[in-house]
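Researcher: Re-running this chain for the archive, since the previous output was lost when a drive failed. Same request as before.
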Amino acid sequence: MLVLFLNKFDKYWDGKLDQLRKAFPGHSFVSYLDHKDPKELLPEADVLVKGSLGKEELAKAVKLKAVFVPWTGVDGLPLTELKKRSIILANNHGNAEVVAERAIALAMAVTGRVVELHKNLERGVWLGRPSSKELTWFSMIGRKCAILGLGQIGQKIATFLKAFRCRINGFKKEPTGDYPGIDFLTNDIIQAVTGAELVFVALPLTSETFAIVNQEVLDAMGSAYLINISRGKVVEERALAESLMSGKLAGAAIDVWYDYPSIDRPVTLPSRYPIHMLPNVVISPHVGSWTTESMQAMVDETVESIGHYLLTGNPIDVVDLEKAY
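Model: Regenerated structure tokens:
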């Protein structure tokens, strides 16, 4: 069986490949470090490791049986085509804890006015001392929160929020099971956000969650803070911009966006609206997973899942192609 790695590679990945080669000598493992253009081997690949996959690439991979995404999100893959061909799709959740940490850091930054006050003090402007302007910032302690999406990341956010003695509403499409830290569980998104002072968006991007946080939901949030660490397009862009610019929302902290840079357009604003210019918004360039520990954890889980697949025919974390998560 040929396992083809078309993802970005480094020494850590290479070391893990050596482990796979030793553990499974009857299989071949090929990356960019082994072949000048491993894409040439797509017609021979049984297993593919890649974060995004075009329909043309998939069509070339005529022997493909499984795809492993080396992170959580699978919105960059042709799920319908994978389903038609009965190709297994696997992801992993090695980044869950640090993405949740990033969500809390962003929440504290926007509620504590950290960036706003930093910029003021850079110019020598003090608020709250000799200034006539009163300074207050919003403490997260004891607040009512809502978490939209209770996957691994959403559950970790709940764990962290409990350290602040927060009361937490959880939104989940199928509200069954036990979710530690969640005080109220519902499949009604309006019910989840009503009365919440902070709303954390941790939903996967699917056809059902696209723009699910729309004007109606934002209006139901009142003067809450919104923190998005999932995918930008889960929140309707224009509605978010208008709610922030009008002052309806108290603020937002955002790590995921609508416009991203490319090779021919490396300098790119994150939205067609001036969200990034607002003083009550903290922005971050989609780096929730970007810690050394998180990157290595995702590699570890991907490699472990590949090994499990080679032994049993089943990856550890299989994506439901109907649900897209």
